[in-house]
Amino acid sequence: MKILILTGRFGNGHLAASQSLRQQLCCLPDTSAEIVDFVDYALPALSGLMYRSFGLLVTHAGALFNLYYRLTSLGHPDARPPFHDLLLDRLAALLCEKKPDAVLATHPLCAQLVSLLKEETGLSLPLVTCITDISSHPEWINRHTDCYLVPTTEIRDRLSARGVDPSVICVTGIPVREEFRCLSRLSEKEAPAPAPQRGESTRHLLVMGGGLGLLPTDLTFYADLNTIPDTQTTVITGQNEKLYQKLQGRFANIQVIGYTSHVWEYMAQADLIVTKPGGITLFETIYSQVPVFTLKPSLLQERSNARWLTERGIGWTAGRADCAWEIRLLLEDPQLLSAVRTRMAHVKEQLETERLCTVLAALAQKGAAA
């Protein structure tokens, strides 16, 4: 079975979910999975500019992005994206070239286009849409989608309320790498060398801001973290080189890491994670069973993620920008952290993580018979 995973690099979450799905699928016998950045494939001369512009938009003009998100949330499923005729031609060429048995879309634009192509051509190619935020935004919903992989039972219910057949919705969570799902198997040899500690009781705090390193820039925040007793802090700045240079070597109890593809190794050591509430990051913490404290979100989909987190009782959201004191209170309450880890384990147990493989096999067989 040959699976084509279509995505776009608007943020790192869509690509990370694609990589996790490919890792899972390639473990199956007689199965291959290939990831294609469809925006880069369809618009090679413009994709770099589009991705840079998106990064600037979410970093410096979140209000404009939220306005766009609100306006499109008022739309209807099966929306036609801009320049859809051009993009449909490029999609048809890609499918002719790759000849997949099924398509898995981790970005709404890709799901929209595959659904439109199926409608206009009668193509029977199975389409699976993987929703990468705790969202039921209409751009994810398309008539010719054969299966939805959704993060939570709440999203399953919202999609059903919008008219999606519940039998084609699987609550799989947001896909994470196998390393997050098997952290207990990591040996001491595989884990990163621990930062200097002041005693056996030293706690570990992990602060990370996703691939773009969207973290507080005020040094007072880090100075306050540095003074939390018996706590060693690791800050992962991602691609935020400016913040990395600003923090590197400045605080005795803070270790600064740039971009790393081995985040799970740092999660394995953490007692608490402080991060932006991206969808895939939240599920990485759930699989790692490390309590999470999210920085005050600015983007609407991240607000939705953070709201679900707090409603489920598996994390907290900062009430204000100067939140180091809140973090300290959590670290100093081991019983509370333990209770959250237990609830995270319960959430993880509810996920139908193995359904994807069964669904794809059934859809591919159905497509072959069509």
Gross geometry? globular
Spans with pLDDT under 50 lasting ≥5 residues?
Answer: 184-200
Question: Looking at the chains present, what oligomeric state does this protein adopt?
Answer: single chain
Quickly count the helices: 16
Succession of helices and strands = EHEHHHHEHEEHEHEHEHEHEHEHEHHH
Please describe what this structure looks like:
- The chain contains 16 helices and twelve strands.
- The protein is α/β, with parallel strands linked by helices and 370 residues long.
- The strands form two sheets. It has a six-stranded parallel beta sheet, with helices on both faces.
- Helix 3 crosses helix 4, helix 5 packs across helix 6 and helix 9 runs parallel beside helix 14.
- The relative contact order is 0.12.
- About 5% of the residues have low confidence.
Short description:
The protein is an alpha/beta fold and 370 residues long.
List keywords for this structure.
single chain, six-stranded parallel beta sheet, 370 residues, 16 helices, alpha/beta
